[in-house]
Design a protein that fits this description.
By secondary structure, this protein is an alpha+beta fold. It has a single domain, classed as GMP Synthetase, Chain A, domain 3 (2-Layer Sandwich). It is built from three helices and seven strands. It has a four-stranded antiparallel beta sheet. A three-stranded mixed beta sheet has the order 3-4-7. The longest helix is centred in the middle third of the chain and has 16 residues. It is globular and about 40 Å long. The termini are far apart.
């Protein structure tokens, strides 16, 4: 039902299959040792946004990774994907829209924060 880079899988295992296939596609690429070092420290997650019908492959790098390594990972993953004719994500035999996000830092969640300096002053407060 699901395929990630040509490999039959389930939605739950799609992140792991994505990681495994990137490792496979990286075998003859310049910069592979650095890529493998980053992969060992990263988390690969797959999500499907059913509202906009897009598969989201997320590579979550450790917080201490510098911006240069994020740029390296973006370039390296792009080169790996160009080396294959397989679609990134296929559902029921039909290639689907998909994006890859690379995240290297945690943004604080400020939704619902009660800090007075983050709230807008309302007419009632005046």
């Amino acid at each position: 039902m699901f395929k990630v880079l040509g490999v039959d899988t389930s939605m739950i295992r799609s992140g792991k299959v994505f990681k495994d296939m990137l490792i496979e596609l990286s075998k003859r690429k310049k910069g592979r040792p650095h890529f493998m070092e980053l992969v060992k420290r990263s988390e690969f997650i797959f999500r499907f946004d059913s509202v906009v019908e897009v598969g989201i492959f997320e590579i979550k790098l450790p917080n201490d990774v510098p911006n240069e390594d994020v740029a390296f990972m973006e370039d390296f993953v792009t080169r790996c994907l160009k080396a294959t004719d397989e679609s990134l994500f296929v559902f029921k035999g039909v290639p689907q829209k998909a994006v890859i996000t690379i995240i290297a830092s945690e943004e604080p969640n400020i939704i619902g924060t009660r800090s007075p300096h983050l709230r807008k002053k309302s007419m009632i407060d005046e």
